[in-house]
Amino acid sequence: MSSYISRLLRTPAASKRLISQLTERGGKNRFSLLLQRLGLGKWANGVSGVGPRAISTTPVCKAEMADDIELATGIAKREMLLREQGCSDPWSMVKGIRRGAGRENDPTPIPSAFDGRLVGCVCLGDRFVKWMWLEKGNPKRCECGHYFVLKKVPPV
């Protein structure tokens, strides 16, 4: 073992292989004590596999998960708040709008938060939906003769 120590003292920086050879033969505790006696205490604690290692831990915060409403933003958050208040269909998409009288002086009101909306009319005696762009202002007439008008509603 003395030949290993003499080689260790001659080299400017001891190699990990040399130190691992020393620790295999002499045991970890004996080697660290020997290095401390020779004034090489920094090698006794700083080399992996030799001496005690410090363990760093962080405390775990056992907080609850954030609520969905706290994480949501924009329109999704407004929808969640409306559902909490009891409005299960904030966009009025579950139930279609039924046609009213549809005359020129009494058109069917179509709610919209914008200045225009795409409207589909299921005309009597036809299998296909007739689509038209309804804009704010005067009532618009479908091909079947039914009138629609845009009604302003507050946005969601």
Automatic annotation (TrEMBL):
**Is Membrane tagged as a keyword?**
no
What domain of life does the native source organism fall in?
Eukaryota
Q: Name one GO biological process term.
A: mitochondrial electron transport, cytochrome c to oxygen
From the Swiss-Prot or TrEMBL record, give the protein name: Cytochrome c oxidase subunit 5B, mitochondrial
GO CC annotation, single? mitochondrial envelope
| PANTHER family from the UniProt entry | CYTOCHROME C OXIDASE SUBUNIT 5B, ISOFORM A-RELATED, CYTOCHROME C OXIDASE SUBUNIT 5B, MITOCHONDRIAL
Which GO MF term does the entry hold, naming one?
metal ion binding
Supply the alphabetized keyword list: Metal-binding, Zinc
Native species of this protein? Drosophila lebanonensis
Q: Which Pfam families match?
A: COX5B (PF01215)
SUPFAM superfamilies assigned: Rubredoxin-like (SSF57802)
Note the Gene3D superfamilies from the entry. Answer: Cytochrome c oxidase, subunit Vb (2.60.11.10)
| InterPro entries named among the record's database cross-references | Cyt_c_oxidase_su5b, Cyt_c_oxidase_su5b_sf
Residues involved in Zn(2+) binding = 121, 123, 142, 144
